[in-house]
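Thread: quick sanity check before group meeting

JM: Hey all, I'm pulling together slides for Thursday and realized we never actually wrote out the predicted structure for the chain we discussed last week. Dropping the sequence here so it's in one place. If anyone has concerns about the input, flag it before I start.
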Amino acid sequence: MIIYPAIDLKDGNCVRLRKGNLDDTEVFNKNPIDQAKYFESIGFKWLHIVDLNGAVLGKLINILIIESIINNTNLRIQLGGGIRDIETIDLLLDKGLSRIIIGTSAVKNPSLVKLACKKYPGKIIVGIDAKDGLVATDGWLKKSNLNYLDLAKEYEDSGVSTIIYTDIDRDGMMEGINFESIQLLASKINIPIIASGGISTLSDIEKLKSIEDKGISGAIIGRALYNKAINPFKVIKIAKDKNVKK
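JM (edit): ok, ran it. Output follows.
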């Protein structure tokens, strides 16, 4: 299982939100490049980046910072936030990103996801952000009438490499993951799942690791790394451990 430390970019800063509320923002580092280098120095191999400004506006805003992280680390990077057309996907992959996360357009423009999957096999992720089981879009500002399970099933045979599932009500709250929803999702689809939202202790990771063979390929950790609630060295070890009890 892979652990993805998270960098959420807002107005050039590395921030964390609570429940996706842009008005409830805490700045953890004013230099996201240094933050990325720190994660790399610890031993993380991947990085999860979201352009929060881009998610709301529908176009990438913090692209220069993202390019700097690409050019100044050896991390493999997956990026989401404001990616709404194939030209942007072309540009980002050409710059050296490893994977692209499509969220809003997975609801509003499924043909983009299918086109991107065909053009870039293994490089396209669908981000499903849910509140009360319903998918949210546009930087989590709008809630659709689409159930998260139904959206996931729509992409079962489209070539999507991974689904990132985030429980918005848990995100940034340090209250633990919505294990039941993640487990249910894993039982309904064959696409690998990255769990996100609320991970706050090593036991959260151990629970996810225990169902790794059900399709849980990774976990995204944000606030719990920034406020040192989770020891990064221990979490890397647990993720690699082949002997976690099921």
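AS: nice. The mean pLDDT is 93. The radius of gyration is 16 Å.
JM: adding both to the slides.
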